[in-house]
Amino acid sequence: MRVSHVITRLIVGGAQENTLSSVLGLGRIPDWEVELISGPTRGPEGSLESMALAVPGLLKLEPSLVRPVHPLMDALAYLRLRRHFRRTRPQIVHTHSGKAGVVGRFAARHAGVPRVIHTIHGPSFGPFQGAMANATFRSAERAAGRQTDHFVVVAEAMARQYLEAGIGNPSQYTRIFSGFDLAPFLAVRRDPELAERLGIRPGDFVVGKVARLFQLKGHDDLFAAAVEMVRQIPNVRFLLLGDGPWRGRFEAMAATEPGLAGRFLFAGLVPPSEVSRYLGLMDVLVHLSRREGLARVLPQALASGKPVIAFDCDGAAEVCRDEETGFLLKPGDLPGLVDRVVRLAVDPDLAHRMGVVGRSWVRERFSEEALVQSLDTLYRQLLGRPGGAS
Prior knowledge:
The chain is of the alpha/beta class. The chain is built from 15 helices and 13 strands. The strands form two sheets. A seven-stranded parallel sheet has the order 3-2-1-4-5-6-7, with helices on both faces. A six-stranded parallel sheet has the order 10-9-8-11-12-13, with helices on both faces.
């Protein structure tokens, strides 16, 4: 059985890591012949293309599949994908991300592909943008939704948002958590050499954040709360993983804001295989994004035994269970953010207990094997085929 996955680009990000884990895992099941089609990967976010290219024949790059809206290139991408699907005749086309999700689903349906699936990794509409943009994206998602046999969501929150927007019906949605290789996170230890290289001293209380350095990721909220955190926790440091177009702006803020000089450490873009080493240096992970399906770093931090503090946006509440695995806050609650960080700083036993609960909870739900087995089962159900991955 042949399945084609389509994604707009293979930057270093949660949706891309999820997609790559899916195609690599499915490719190890004898019944599946898997390919991954991606547009060109550009920008400061890094690339996962080398990991896909390491498997001969897996990755097909489609130059016309570009991220910005571009009528000519979008039409060309549609035509080329439709022609490719007609020639290769996959039983399933499974799309990911906004542009590939719309163009790819229309191309697959018009090519006569038996089953068209789309994963909603994060919302394309919501309070994070204006009315005109929301109207445009809702319209596009409704049109693409009519070409879709089934939706996979990384969090139930995504299903609720799309159903409320009139996209599909409840029977078309399946939640499959974005699994990952748990082993390096479950085995994480503090790396003294890495700590020394970054300038983290023994006894520092490290608040970590893993996200692109760009809008809607919550860095401004962290900077706004940081001064008060420094006042109440003299040994606090902030470790930021990620890169992006706003890095210069945030570096300037860290250097010029009163009381913050030397407090912020910019690790830059970190390969997925290295994230666990950096999580091992953190005492708490904060996730303050205003737009995220369910950030993989939340279960990764919990698997590392670290408590998390998150704004209650999208799927965060499905992993950050308030007072159990961390603290859940209303978006923009900066006094609450300061209070929860301080509580963890002064009560290491509380932080440890939350880490233990979180690690056990994630171990049962977020393995890469569970992700792949769930997809295998879903595919077979949609195609009416027996059997499954062992």
